[in-house]
Amino acid sequence: MRTAQVIMETGAHAAALAVKCARVDVIPGYPITPQTSIMEALSAMVEKGELDARFIPVEGEHSALAAAVAASAAGARVFTATSSNGLLYMHEVLHMASGGRLPVVMCNVNRGIFAPWTLWADHQDSFAQRDTGWIQFHCSSNQEVFNTVLQAFRVAEQINIPVMVNFDGFVISHCFMPLNVPAQEDIDRFLPLHEPEWRLDPAHPSSFSNVTNAAEYASFRQMLSQDIMASIPLVKEAAQSYKDITGMWDGDTIDTYRMEDAEVVVLAVNSMAAELRLSVDILREQGIRAGLLRPRLILPFPAQDIIDALPQNAQVMVLDRNYNFGHHGGILASELKSVLFGRRHDITVKNRVMGIGGVDLTRRFMADEIRAMLDE
Amino acid sequence: MTTSIKKLPDTEQVLSGNGACGGCPATMALRMVGKALGTNAIMLLTPACSVASMGMTPKLGYNWPCINICFATAGASASGITHAIEIMKEKGRLQGELPTVFSWVGDGGTYDIGFQALSAAAERNENIIHFCYNNEAYSNTGVQRSGATPRGSFTTTTPTGKVQPKKNMPMLMLEHNIPYVATATVAYPGDLYDKVVKAKNISGMKYIEILAPCYLGWQFDMADTVQMSRMAVRSGAWLLWEAENGKISFNSPSSHIINGKRDADPVNEYVMKQGRFNRLLNGADAARRIAEIQGDVDREIAFMRERAKIMI
């Protein structure tokens, strides 16, 4: 491991630096708060010649992802980023990227959804894209954002499925934290040049995403579904290989804290999960045997790893920063319950929705909430 | 001099056995485009007639790599491809002459749902050719109105005739200050061929719109596609022109109509040969409705004649 430098950076700039280190070819971009500073940083790197890539300043997010998808089909390594309504505006193109098996990597800086207008973090945007066939990571620190962008390219290109790297607006995107930037030769060893099996090439005329008959279409969809599940070992392998080369580890499909003898397991994602480590410490001081289980991977949902990580008879407190409309509570809780059903009768699940639209989630507030949930 | 149809290359990029309707003007036009572009090209299509007719996966009726993209995205998608191949060549990952990147899109994907992304690509002066094969309606979904449907035309969403005139899309593209804009139609294949050859050799954004009389949508005999195309030009309902770096010039025979050497044929005969108009022209207001259509044609001729005089 050769750490080239430790710098102070925001989460947004950590993402941009990772894109540079990934030697990306094409970056179509459109600004939206709080993602904007990723695109500003990347366009500056391209203008200054620090990053040998094309920045395409498109006129909207739908076009940003469309240009990304097409550039990927032409054989380039491609990155874009968005937030909130920008991600929603991309919705049909998200499906084309996954259905087209194009290994685009995109950061989504989580922000609540209009209406009414909000600028601050919650997870409705990325969770609303759960069924678009993208692999989805959720990150809890600036360093993890940097590390995960690189791991995302590796996984995406191995299995030809696009990857979304999510992290919270402002709390991560705009806050400075120390950032380890590995040596470029180490990153190159971890992430070799993109050599797609197939690309749009006049020497080999072929049609891409053309009309299919029902049986062929069904077969494409089945392969996508199976390959999304097959990405789990690749995610683990990428995390392990990244650790071997850089020494850094954020967990693989999941990340855990003080889980060894836990009776109360808190389950949450993104920056609130970083804060929850402190809540777990507070609860431990109060005599409650608490632990934290943070899924890094939301799609595919790492069912087996979560089941294996849960201690016998644990009470799981799921803290959702989103709503599962039409049900009580949030989406993470529903996902967890669906994987536990018929497999872990010993587990109880409780759920609260909090932090919507950027409502502040302090360690004490969350510790109090968890203690209150124990009495329910 | 316009290239004679006899001198066009024998090479074919539109292969036999595709699924187009008999007399399909888009496929005829694409054949001419293929002769001009050759094999070294990448084709983008939005969901439309030309995708439906190119064959079911994995078969392909066109001799290019073809990508079917999201409907609204021709301008953005073509930009992505052209930047990708250029940077890969700069980095040494692609060798040889770069292929021409072109979009082959109907009037829906150009005038309407695709307008925003196309306008942005033009404003960025992306190095692509955008072809609009304009059959003046959403033909692939069964003939609904589009921004290119002329006033008075029946479509399934204008059952008593469209009330509004069409918009002048080639002119809108010209106002983006792009290096090349041209109009063409299938009755003048040499004119189309020459314009595509010219566009291929210009760097930056090129827009070529091809009037494509669709027998299904326009309701005429499928053997009469070329005749209908010619009547559109001779009546002045379609003007053949091109603009290099903003300078408009008209092509024969439209040039003769513009400079007054030849009168445009009255639209009456053109209109009455098409079911999309004449099914609505049986009532007492027939004369008024034809006069309205004639008025729209006359206005466009007058506008283009004057607009072409502006050279700054």
List the helices and strands and how they pair.
The complex is a heterodimer of chains A (376) and B (312).
Chain A: E1 3-10, H1 11-21, E2 26-29, H2 36-47, E3 54-57, H3 61-73, E4 79-82, H4 84-89, H5 91-99, E5 105-110, H6 124-127, E6 135-138, H7 142-159, E7 163-168, E8 176-182, H8 184-190, E9 207-208, H9 214-246, E10 254-257, E11 264-267, H10 271-285, E12 290-295, E13 297-299, H11 303-309, E14 315-320, H12 331-340, E15 348-353, H13 363-374
Parallel strand pairs in A: 2-3, 4-5, 5-7, 6-7, 11-12, 11-14, 14-15
Antiparallel strand pairs in A: 1-8, 6-13, 10-12
Helix pairs in contact in A: 1-2, 1-7, 3-5, 7-9, 8-9, 10-13
Chain B: H1 25-37, E1 41-45, H2 49-52, E2 66-68, H3 74-90, E3 100-106, H4 107-112, H5 115-123, E4 129-134, H6 169-174, E5 180-185, H7 189-200, E6 206-211, H8 215-218, H9 225-234, E7 241-244, E8 247-250, H10 254-258, H11 267-272, H12 275-278, H13 286-307
Parallel strand pairs in B: 1-2, 1-3, 3-4, 4-6, 5-6
Antiparallel strand pairs in B: 5-7, 7-8
Helix pairs in contact in B: 1-7, 3-5
